[in-house]
Design goal:
Blueprint (H helix, E strand, L loop, with lengths): L6 E3 L3 E4 L2 E8 L4 E3 L10 E5 H5 L9 H9 L4 E6 L3 E3 L2 E2 L6 E5 L1 H11 L2 H17 L9 E4 L1 E2 L43 E2 L8 H20 L8 H15 L5 H14 L11 H16 L1 H14 L10 H8 L2 H10 L8 H18 L6 H12 L1
Parallel strand pairs: 1-7, 4-11, 6-10, 8-12
Antiparallel strand pairs: 2-3, 3-4, 3-5, 5-9, 6-9
Length: 381
């Protein structure tokens, strides 16, 4: 690992009444500034999410969920800073070193949804010029990785330092923009927002989690070859853990991780009849499918109303199945019946009526004439 010193960043601060908002300027995909620099092109001011949501009805532990909600609208972004940067007044886990920021549109949205009328007025009076200047800016990306600070001297091996060419002074010396420098122009050095803090009830769990992570780090450093084949799965798990901590776990990432775990071992090598894993998965799937019964019933009833005049002339079984039943149910049965391979195309066409019949019975929604006849026959017996 390269040897370099940590840079302590004091984020500039806007003060309006009881509210204080720290901010940075986004230059491009990898660079930022802490001071405005007009002759270097347009900059995008970004405002610290923790400050925007402070002193609102939103509990601190729920902040990540709200940040993620605004990020989906392009109003907020999660910025991962180089590990060389640390922040005065903010306790951020070194392993993550990420902070949420909002653009000016996001700031206004938060203000008018969560602030008092006086605070809204202060935001409106002080930030309307910023809002006008940013009105044509594109929505923010979900994440940025910033490694370069353009307005501070640093080691060339770590940072790229730019010098503004002006005759009598540095162009990045702020001249008191009222939207950004009411009050102090640097952040308070006390740790006013702790991204590492958990409630007292969670402390035992946090301690256990840290112990596990330290143990994992020790194993990776002392016996890397023994777990080399598992590294991809471990990385997927850690990615999911990171997203879960910030409240931003995505369904696709969770699915990929679960699949990786399922494929990591031959869990059913002893017997499919006594597999605890398959039993748990079957139970979970059954509960999800059962919970969907009412919505499936509504869809089937709507279909019957539309086809009441030609109930004996229904579309092919494959079309009916795709229209009326969840894809997950079809996928499960296609794989279960060995009909998912292209080589089984003819077999698939011939056996799809059986698949449809199973879904009709399992969901208690009879559609075809065959299903009605068989059901009546079975019930009578």
């Amino acid at each position: 690992m390269s040897d370099y010193s940590t840079v302590q960043l004091a984020l500039p601060l806007w003060v309006g009444g009881s509210r204080k908002i720290r901010f940075i300027y986004l230059v491009n995909q990898t660079s930022f500034r802490l001071t405005d620099c007009p002759n270097k092109g347009p900059l995008i001011p970004l405002y610290l999410g923790a400050d925007l949501l402070s002193n609102t009805d939103i509990r601190i532990e729920n902040h990540p969920r709200y940040h993620a909600k605004f990020a989906k609208k392009g109003l907020a972004t999660k910025i991962k800073f180089s590990s060389a940067f640390r922040f005065q007044g903010l306790k951020v886990p070194a392993s993550n070193n990420s902070l949420w920021f909002y653009n000016i549109q996001g700031l206004f949205r938060v203000a008018f949804e969560m602030y008092t009328k006086l605070e809204q007025l202060a935001v409106l009076e002080n930030f309307q010029d910023v809002w006008k200047s940013q009105i044509d800016e594109s929505p923010l990306e979900m994440t940025y990785s910033l490694t370069v600070q353009l307005d501070a001297p640093a080691s060339p091996s770590v940072f790229e330092t730019e010098v503004c060419e002006m005759s009598d002074r540095p162009c990045c010396e702020d001249e008191g923009d009222p939207a950004h420098l009411s009050g102090s122009d640097v952040a308070d050095k006390s740790a006013d927002h702790n991204y590492c803090t958990f409630s007292s009830d969670s402390q035992p769990l946090v301690a256990s989690l840290r112990e596990r992570l330290h143990s994992l780090a020790d194993q990776l450093s002392s016996q890397p070859q023994s777990c080399a084949e598992r590294l991809e799965t471990i990385l997927l798990l850690l990615k999911c853990i990171d997203q879960q901590v910030t409240g931003d776990l995505k369904e696709k990432d969770a699915a990929e991780t679960v699949l990786a775990l399922l494929k990591a071992e031959d869990w059913t090598k002893d017997s499919v009849y006594s597999s605890y894993l398959l039993t748990c998965i079957g139970s979970w799937l059954g509960q999800q499918f059962h919970a969907a019964n009412s919505s499936i019933s509504q869809k089937v009833e709507g279909f019957k109303v539309q086809h009441i005049e030609r109930i004996s002339d229904l579309p092919p079984a494959e079309e009916l199945t795709a229209e009326l039943f969840p894809e997950a149910m079809q996928t499960l049965l296609l794989h279960w019946m060995g009909l998912w391979e292209e080589s089984s195309l003819e077999k698939r066409r011939s056996e799809y009526p059986i698949l449809l019949l199973i879904l009709e019975f399992a969901n208690h929604n009879l559609i075809t004439g065959v299903a009605h006849v068989l059901y009546s026959s079975l019930i009578c017996k």
